[in-house]
């Protein structure tokens, strides 16, 4: 069966623009801040609204309250489907309807919970993250209308910004509602508003608590200092031993690779420095592409350190100290394996033979797209058509914990990570916004992709 084609889809999406913007404005006004309580009425209202919007585009959406792992009531989730042909592929569309809090509205130039259009962007909390994801799915289904030729399932989550606590029990309880050939997660973003991207990898993470002990009890630093190093200094030596002289992690057994799907364009050093607010004299650590250093190679950070505060300190040698390492792991390495490699290294490199003990903490698996799968080619082609330029794929240095979980629970399904954000979106920050032209092109992309997946069947 012939595909609808770019021009038909573009016309339909452009004709639908005001409905899509209204959807986003309504969504912003619902102020669905999950941090104020995922079981609150405001979250129920948000879920009901989203379900209503999905019903308007032919999905039999309903709101279901999830249960937490401990059995208590959890988030209001929106699920539903639109079945067109038992022989056609099934696509699961994911987004989330909860939003980040607004700790200080005075940092915003507009009211955070009123959608305000300005210079081609719509401002408001959740306009991009992830109201934009809901708008992409709604717009794509509207554009295809009765020409939809794939089966669609929808999951709009209610607690993504709170770490998706009830996600796994909910998925397990509703397995059939999620079983699909392709999962489109519209919760990331593009290289820029006019350059599309697939997000091809996420790093995993592992926390390790490390205790360094040198003495049975603290002793006077004048009397014993010299032959005996204090535990803080020994801990600093231990931490430094993880790095080579370029500042790169040099721990055997920690995997790290090149960007998944190849590197089309590297990140800009000056931009990275400006975004992070690095002091002028600082030299960036490592030598490879910035993309690989940020997305596909491991990184370690000391995120906690038990030492005596400077104020009120006195002349003693610390007997022991403890610090926590947050290790970001390569997308494809098991975090348990990476944590073990690091623990072995730290114990083997105990400075001066101090006692080093390592206790593993939270772990999360990373994720890497299957860059060779045909659906990736189809998605890239849809992006090329919709945006009129080649996609520039990217990774995420952080994690989106439910994506590896989806992959674990549905190993047969391909996962594509797309989304409405661009570098100006300020998701999680003041003045969040979405590019409306970018949104239109994202909708066209998703509609084209669903259309081509359906056409392939007939
Ligand atoms: Zn999000």
Automatic annotation (TrEMBL):
Respond yes or no to whether keyword Metal-binding is given for this record: yes
Q: List this protein's GO terms for biological process.
A: proteolysis
Instruction: Give residue ranges for domain Peptidase M20 dimerisation.
Output: 204-353
Any one GO molecular function term: peptidase activity
Assigned keywords, A-Z: Hydrolase, Metal-binding, Protease
Gene3D superfamilies for the chain: 3.30.70.360, Zn peptidases
Instruction: Extract the Pfam families matched here.
Output: M20_dimer (PF07687), Peptidase_M20 (PF01546)
Q: Could you confirm whether the keyword Hydrolase appears in this record?
A: yes
- Name under which the protein is recorded: Peptidase M20
Organism of derivation: Bifidobacterium mellis
